[in-house]
Amino acid sequence: MTTDLTDLGWSQFFNGQLDLEEIGTLTPVRLSEVRRRSVVALTPALERVEIALTGDHVATDMAVGDFALTDGTRLIRLLERKTLISRKAAGIAAQAQLIAANIDTLFITTSCNQDFNEARLERYLAIALDAEAVPVIVITRKDRPEEMPAEDYETRAKSIYEGAEVMLVNAKDAEDIARLERYCGRGQTIALVGSSGVGKSTLARGLTGEEIEVGEIREDDAKGRHTTTARSMHRMHAGGWLIDTPGMRELALHDASEGIATLFEDITELAAMCKFSDCRHRGEPGCAVRAAVEAGELDPERVERWRKLLEEDARNTETIAEARDRGRKFSKTVKSAKKAKSARRGE
Ligand SMILES: Nc1nc2c(ncn2[C@@H]2O[C@H](COP(=O)(O)OP(=O)(O)OP(=O)(O)O)[C@@H](O)[C@H]2O)c(=O)[nH]1
Ligand SMILES: [Zn+2]
């Protein structure tokens, strides 16, 4: 059976990374599960094969949705990603954990109720923009709006960022699901983010016809527990792929300064014109942001949210950088210990 690679989400972007020899000898696959010492990959024939990780390949470098080349038994190399979503991993060894690669569209989900708020949506928008995925705000419960008419939620969402499409839906309604399917066609990859209870499972069920379980699977090893994800790529009715992982549902902001700058482009540009390059926009002389607020050209609440988002991002990013420094020293120790061990085993 020859399924077109396009079905997997393959495009010129990936094809252009292969040299002639690789085209002749290797097969592109897409990772649908990342385990501790192996990955499960989707082949061009849409079969799932388990590939052991050998040599320098380690699970922490791989993400669900990655494209890789295999010679049939081994994973030869990962291809450069079009988009990447990561999160700050929990625990002392804080490091960025890769959540999903090559997502085209991120459905940022909220509801016509108290879950809806600009700050939350902006945080997800910054993540999507930073990852270079197209953000679509999906507002569920249009059939049961709580605090104001459903259309008002839509209007508020539309005013957040003009680059984001807004879809007001009843997640249980087949016609509304069909409206979302324009992002879910053949070759497209999407993911759902949003708080618990906003309707992500309901949307996922509507788009795939599957009841998706996103429980974390833990594989124990001597050094502790390593979290992997269960089967995470799901085919949608419209032909595309939905990536659903526990990590995706618990995304936190980190290292997203470019996304924040894109989302708040106007404020970012103003801030560059402040007299002091480290201006905190809290009343310093020559503050262009402050001046715009005073002139009524900028919403002060939006400025406050922007500042908080930057702070949150800086806080989390710093922790990762610091941990990385600490980790380097530690990993040297681990590496030499491992070497000694393999030497003893005669590997
Ligand atoms: N009336 C109505 N009910 C909805 C809508 N979207 C979701 N629900 C209901 O809201 C409840 C929560 O929806 P879920 O799909 O489980 O939410 P979730 O985001 O997956 O939540 P987690 O699994 O906790 O992440 C369910 O009872 C859904 O049937 C909607 O648009 N309209
Ligand atoms: Zn300023």
UniProtKB/TrEMBL annotation:
Domain (CP-type G): residue spans on this chain: 95-251
Bound cofactor: record note: Binds 1 zinc ion per subunit.
Basic residues biased stretches: 326-347
Record keyword Acyltransferase present: no
Biological process annotations from GO: ribosomal small subunit biogenesis
Gene3D superfamilies: P-loop containing nucleotide triphosphate hydrolases, Probable gtpase engc, domain 3
Comp. bias intervals (Basic and acidic residues): 316-325
Region feature (Disordered): 316-347
Keywords of the record: Cytoplasm, GTP-binding, Hydrolase, Metal-binding, Nucleotide-binding, Ribosome biogenesis, RNA-binding, rRNA-binding, Zinc
Pfam families: RsgA_GTPase (PF03193)
NCBIfam families: ribosome small subunit-dependent GTPase A
Protein name: Small ribosomal subunit biogenesis GTPase RsgA
Species of the source: Celeribacter indicus
Protein's gene: rsgA
